[in-house]
Design brief:
The two termini are 51 Å apart. It is elongated, with a radius of gyration of 27 Å. It folds into three domains: 170 residues, Molybdenum Cofactor Biosythetic Enzyme, Chain A; 79 residues, 2-Layer Sandwich (Alpha-Beta Plaits), CATH 3.30.70.2860; 152 residues, Alpha-Beta Complex (Maf protein), CATH 3.90.950. By secondary structure, it is α/β, with parallel strands linked by helices. Helices cover 42% and strands 24% of the residues. Helix 2 packs parallel to helix 7 and helix 11 packs parallel to helix 16.
Amino acid sequence: MTAEIITIGDELLIGQIVDTNSAWMGEQLSLTGIKVHQISSISDNEEHILQALSEAEKRVDLVLITGGLGPTKDDITKKTLCKYFDTNLVMHEDILEKIKDFFDRRGFKMLEVNKQQAALPENCTIIPNPVGTASGMWFEKNNTVFVSMPGIPHEMKRIMIDGVLPKLKKEFDLPVIIHRTVLTYGVIESELSDLLEDFEKNLPQGMKLAYLPSLERLRLRLSITGTNRTELEKLLDEQVSNLKKYLGNKVFGYEDSSLQEAIGILLKDKGQTVAIAESCTGGNIAHLITSISGSSEYFKGSVIAYDNSIKQTVLKVSEQNLIKHGAVSKEVVEQMALSVQKLMKTDFAIATSGIAGPTGGTGEKPVGTTWIAVAVPSGEVFAKKYVFGTQRSQNIRRASAVALNNLRKRLLEK
């Protein structure tokens, strides 16, 4: 079964709102055994909507539509659907009662315009919306299923989970599609591809490996399609274990885990603690670590030593090192790591100092130059220079991820 996703709204086309609906729906359809053929974003224009529906009908078995179901005049999807499916709007008293109850429970007055959301196409199957006032609508035409849903993400997701996906599974004989995701860091895509050349050649028939890089991790996704879920899961589990043999400690987790989760597990297992001294990352590493529930067991605290005066007074970085080597240097970042480790009485410490940009770079130290240090329980400190890019936000994210991964590697040492 193939699908197309159509999101409707001028706000999507001008960049006022980012389309997150399509990504979520695509993932859910894939897990259900439905392949997404195309994703389109179109304007709130009747002709444009009708054309998009007509073209989609020729291509796929399922069309999912979001947006344009609000109570205001610019929301034209419902009327346009009536034209496409040659039907009329009919008032549904049971839906109207639910809408009234929705407003009553929230203490709002229901306006006349809100009542119109209970007027729905006569020939559609209504899919209830338990968290909003715009119902989902299921149509069938020329062996193609069309489902229209509100564009508000949490409403669309609830309609999909409660109504659309169960109905699709019930009415169609869908294949089983299973994915496993292995997470790596510290190795680039081309290097991984070379490492895994033999692994890919020997994958079972029908199994595919995809490389999905980002700033914080490189995901390796194994996918297989078939009819017997138990057999497919066994094949995937075997290949995930095989993949780990090829990559070793380059793997830090699976599915949706993160580097901060990985180091949290290692620190808890070892009964050890960490502190952080951040300059260029401005507290981002501390934010990432404390985003994990239970991080208070291993994270003591941090010092954001953005100004050199804080580096000197709080972290005891010597004025001589700052003058001779500059704040972005091996000598300074090592002192920062050792000082915060001593100050907070932790086993490990991370320190960062760099030029996040886009200004502040020099010929000797261009924008993106960053020193990252990790202090370990023995009193040793390991510092390394990195030169990232010119984008400030990306430099902060990259430095944070590298720092966490460097700590992870030290935690894995015996």
